[in-house]
Amino acid sequence: MEVNNLSVSSSPSHSRAPLVVAAIVSTLGGFLFGYDNIVISGAIGYLSQLFHLDAAGVGWAAGCALIGCIAGCAAAGTVADYLGKKKGLALCALCFALSSVGMLFASDLHQFVLWRLIGGLGIGAASVIAPNYIAEIAPTRVRGRCVTLYQLGIVVGILAAVFVNMLIQRMGDEAWNISSGWRWMFFAGVVPALLFGLMILPAVESPRWLMKMGRRDQAIEVLIKINGTDVARQEAAEIENSLATEEGHISELFTTFRRPLLLGIMLAGLQQISGITPLFSFLPEIFRAAGTATSDAFFQSVLVSLVNLSFTLFALWLVDRAGRKTLILAGTTVQFVSFALVGWFYHIHGSGLAVLIFVMSFVAGHAFGNGVACWVIISEIYPTKVRGRGMSIAVTALWLVGYLGNQLFPIMQKHLGSDGTFWCFSAGALLTVVLVAWLIPETKGRSLEEITRFWTEEKSVKAE
Fold first, then answer.
1. Helical residues (DSSP H) of 246-293, grouped into ranges
2. Pseudo-torsion of CA 142, 145, 146, 149, nearest 10°?
3. Could you tell me if residue 4 is inside a domain?
């Protein structure tokens, strides 16, 4: 199938602006994901006192948003495939804003959970749509870096959350934080939510979604804006040829594309099995358990988030050079060693400084490894017509494991102690190294259509 009549005179000239705007939208989606997911870390200690929660109740308060995430993930692929990426992201912005405002008026645990579930819908849907959106727009040569900007948004959001938590925690005494302080921690998220919604308006739609929906002329306009006429001609032809070989039914994910479906689920779950979500959700509490004063625990949380940001910037430079698989193996090995040592220092009642150092090294390993590469790979490995639904399934697995981590973390600490808890997470990191080395292929340097052909050709070879 050929793409004819691509004319510069009838289409906008090549410009970096559409890609820059799309990258900002994706990054803001990640920022809200990071902020809304981790802001609970500063509030959970005060919530547990306000609502008189036991260990299971603390886990539920910390993890209930992730139930919303699971629902958001499950619906996001279908929403994005039918409404488009822009409208899907606009719905995410609405969920973020409603949740942030609602927290000001939550008078009991049930209302708190309701608003967290709504925020979770936005987090879950954004975690599917935002990396999917930028992956479908970015040119092949910079796709890894552009998708990494989404992860950069997450870590900046995490940093903003722990920094805002620290500032608000210091604005009043313990009684004020229990009654009101934690509400303002959540409400501060309304500002980036509104900015996210405004940035979506001038953004271009995914050309692959437009082509899939039969809006060929609009898709070609977007491709020319981003790539120029010559590259747009080649890319449009690849997209159309790829779409012609895809049925677009979700059943394809369980037949032709079963292997990438299973690998995406596995990789997403493994990203969480080493404990990154409960670590950030309970960060001040973890440092307090090591003997650190409350105000210092909030400050140390900021330091950890700065490490997260620094090493994500390092990954941004490295991901299209070293490759996705290499980063996962190196970063997760660092995570395995770090949490093994955190567990040891808890076991021997070592210094809080040692715990801080190895928590920071664990976060560094996540930031330049699985934190970046997981999102890049799962945004690349599915075919265009079912990419949204494929990512939905994979990211649902990610949030399901993340929810179990948050729910079980207080219970694990109660029954296994802090040392046993971190040794369990260290074992999860080791399992990740083994399975990724064995099963995950490298996707660096391949176009999305080339990756799709890899799966179909592999299946044809096996059939013969």
1. 258-273, 276-281, 283-289
2. -170
3. no
State how far the alpha carbon of 111 is from the alpha carbons of 190, 455, 457, in Å. 18, 46, 52
Query: Crossing angle for the helix pair 40-50 and 143-169, nearest 10 degrees?
Result: 40
Q: Has residue 441 been placed in a domain? A: yes
Chain centroid to CA 343: 26
Give CA separation, 315 vs 123, 231, 320, 448, in Å: 23, 27, 9, 21
| DSSP secondary structure string for all residues of 402-453 | HHHHHHHHHHHHHHHHHHHHHHHHHHHHHHHHHHHHHHPPP-TT--HHHHHH
Residues 183, 103 contacting (CB under 8 angstroms): yes
Neighbours of 246 (CB within 10 A): 18
Note whether residue 9 is domain-resident: no
Alpha carbon distance 368, 324 (integer Å): 10
pLDDT category at 455 given cuts 50, 70, 90 is confident
Angle among Cα 69, 73, 79 to the nearest 5 degrees reads 130
Give the DSSP per-residue string, 366-393. Answer: HHHTHHHHHHHHHHHSS-GGGHHHHHHH
- The whole domain housing 288 covers 17-204+246-463
Place of tokens 């076991």: 347
Dihedrals phi, psi of 172, to nearest 5 degrees: -150, 180
Indicate if the pLDDT at residue 154 is higher than 60.
Answer: yes
CA dist., res. 359 & res. 151, Å (int): 19
Distance CA(20)–CA(226), nearest Å, equals: 10
CB 215 within 8 A of CB 90: no
Total count of domains within the chain: 1
Angle at 77 between CA 396 and CA 24, to 5 degrees: 95
Q: What is the C-alpha to C-alpha distance for residues 101 and 379, in angstroms, rounded to an integer?
A: 31
Cβ distance 30 to 152 under 8 Å?
yes
Query: Can you tell me the distance from the alpha carbon of 305 to that of 316, in angstroms, rounded to the nearest whole number?
Result: 16
Calpha distance 320→146 (Å, rounded): 10
- The 10 Å Cβ neighbour count of residue 291 is 13
* pLDDT tens track for 110-152: 999 999 999 999 988 988 888 888 888 887 777 777 877 887 8
CATH number, residue 355: 1.20.1250.20
Encoding tokens for residue 361?
């090294």
Q: Which residue has the higher pLDDT, 399 or 266?
A: 266
- Which amino acid, residue 104? L
Rounded distance, CA 43 to CA 435, Å? 36
Q: Is residue 166 part of a domain?
A: yes
Q: Which two tokens stand for residue 260?
A: 């990438």
